[in-house]
Every structure is written in C-alpha cells, then in structure tokens.
Design goal:
alpha/beta
Length: about 240
C-alpha cells in the first residue's frame, strides 16, 4: 500500500533573530522544512544549535523574524490570534523536559485538562492504566518520580486529540530505563493514532526510531536523513 504524504506544517525561509545591533543573535538562518501526517522526526544538535527555537516556531509559541509558517495550507501570519489559539488547542501538543504539571492537581486531574481542551477518544482511566499510573492517579506531582511525572505529561497530550506533538528533550532529565519507557509511549502514539511527532534532542541514538533525522548546527539545518527502516525502541542499543 502506498502511504500518502499529507502535509501538516511547512516552513519557508524561516529566520529568527534575538536582540538588535551589536547584541543581535541569528538563532535561525533560512530554514525550510515540511512535516507530513504520521511522521516521527528527530531534530539533532548540540545546545545552542536552534533546536528549541525551531520547535517553538513550529508549535506557534514564537513568531519568526522572517519567513512563512503554514498549517494545513494556511499561513499562520495571516491568522488572527484567536484562530492561532484554536489551532493550538485542537491540533498541537507539547512535551517538555520540564513537566509543567499543575502542582495542586492530581495526576488524573492534570490529564483531564488535556481532554477538556480537545476531547479525544481515549478513556482516561484506561490510559492511566496503560502507562502504569493506574494506582497513582490520585497522587500529586510532588509524590511522583520524574519518570512518572513525564508519563503524566505524555498522558495529558494523549488525552487531547492531537495532530502533531512537539517534544523538547523529553528524556533529558530521566535515567535510561525511564527514558526508554517514555520513547516507547511516543512511538506507540505515532503508530496507533497516526500522530506526527517532532522530537528535539542531543542524543543521536533516538534518531534510530525516527522516520527522518534533521541535524542542526549554529541555527542551520546541516543534513537531513530519511530512515527507511526505523527501529523499535527495544531494538536500539541504548548503552
């Protein structure tokens, strides 16, 4: 069966500058990029390469200094603020290295926020059981380990009917074993629900599970590699 490529996001000649005059920093320099439905893309690069800035622009959290960002063929620059908020609410999910959970809400209540924003088709109790938090759904974030908090953040994204999920170093603060669990959840999300995933990391081994690997340096894309045979998380030699 031929897999149809349905374009979700397109970046054209994207630039991003911070500061001005002598203190001006060119964070991104003429980036062209396309994301298709159901793709798992890994963006590799050291700190300061522009990975997070690119992710934020793709996710509509930041505006580019120049260039065009389109979602489903419509330019973000031509949308009113409320339309961008609606796009973000219905189609975009985020997972960060910092979990960004609400400390006064339980694990289940944090996940329910995602469902409230854009109701999906997943039963929350089943979801929490699937990610190993069924017996901890009434715990508050401070009562959970780092890996468990990250699972709550992913469950919150899963509960929302998301088209694309942006992940900024989602395993950066986790031990290897817990990181593997998190990556397995993300991969399952792509395969079972057709969610597009863009994951920024400095760990090249994560590229083995991706459909496409983008390498960045000094605000530029220096290489792009199509992975014709992505590995499962279990097949990667992490040690």
């Amino acid at each position: 069966m031929v897999k149809l490529e349905i374009e979700i996001i397109k970046l054209e000649k994207i630039k991003k500058d911070f500061g001005c005059g002598d203190s001006k920093v060119n964070a991104l320099k003429v980036i062209d990029f396309t994301l298709n439905a159901g793709e798992f893309i890994v963006i590799l690069g050291p700190s300061g390469s522009g990975k997070s800035t690119l992710l934020n622009i793709m996710g509509t959290l930041e505006k580019p200094s120049d260039g065009t960002v389109t979602y489903f063929g419509k330019s973000i620059g031509e949308m009113k603020k409320n339309k961008i908020m609606e796009l973000r609410k219905k189609h975009i999910g985020f997972i960060f290295q910092a979990y960004h959970l609400f400390g006064n809400l339980t694990a289940k209540e944090n996940v329910l926020i995602g469902e409230y924003l854009a109701p999906g088709e997943i039963d929350i109790n089943t979801l929490l059981n699937d990610i190993g938090l069924g017996n901890k759904q009434n715990k508050f974030p401070y009562q959970l380990s780092g890996g468990e908090q990250q699972r709550v953040a992913i469950a919150r994204a899963l509960a929302k009917k998301t088209s694309v999920l942006f992940c900024d170093e989602p395993t950066g603060a986790l031990d290897t074993k817990t990181g593997i669990v998190i990556l397995s959840l993300l991969k399952a999300m792509q395969e079972s629900r057709g969610v597009s995933i863009v994951l920024a990391t400095h760990n090249p081994k994560i590229g083995n599970i991706a459909d496409r690997i983008i390498s960045m340096k000094d605000g530029e894309i220096v290489s792009e590699e199509i992975n014709k045979t992505p590995l499962s998380v279990e097949e990667v030699e992490w040690s």
